[in-house]
């Protein structure tokens, strides 16, 4: 029933559904940078590809991040939180893996919104086999 591509290590860069991006951009944007994208799936005019290595680049403005969902996600979440401490708003679309170290070390430092249902990423014909969440790292901390 699940697509093998979404559960395998063969691919970790799934394109964000445009309707979801538009809703997040309306609420938290306008986004100016997509730090982990490809020319085919970038959501912002400014973006970093794998060759650019967004983990080593400075971020600015309002950032939308749909990081690779493999083992490197912890490094992306750490970078997102660190950039927010420098005055950058970072909105992260991530799997809701609440049992992982990266979730407890970084995601919980942000504002968390769980997405109801399962997202249909990119050109997949089926919904993701995991729940998703949006984590917002505000440039001045959580606004509560």
What's the gist of this structure?
By secondary structure, this protein is an alpha/beta fold. A four-stranded mixed beta sheet has the order 3-4-6-5, with helices on both faces. A two-stranded parallel sheet has the order 1-2. It has helices at 4-7, 18-28, 73-84, 101-105; strands at 33-34, 46-47, 62-65, 89-95, 111-114, 132-137.
Task: Provide an overview of this structure.
The chain is α/β, with parallel strands linked by helices and 144 residues long. The chain has one domain (14-52, 60-137): Vaccinia Virus protein VP39 (Rossmann fold), CATH 3.40.50.150. The protein is 22% helix and 17% strand. The chain has helices spanning 4-7, 18-28, 73-84, 101-105, and strands at residues 33-34, 46-47, 62-65, 89-95, 111-114, 132-137. The strands form two sheets. Strands 3-4-6-5 form a four-stranded mixed beta sheet, with helices on both faces. Strands 1-2 form a two-stranded parallel ribbon. Strand 3 (62-65), helix 3 and strand 4 (89-95) form a beta-alpha-beta unit. The longest helix is centred in the middle third of the chain and has 12 residues, at 73-84. The chain is globular. Residues 1-10 have low confidence and may be disordered.
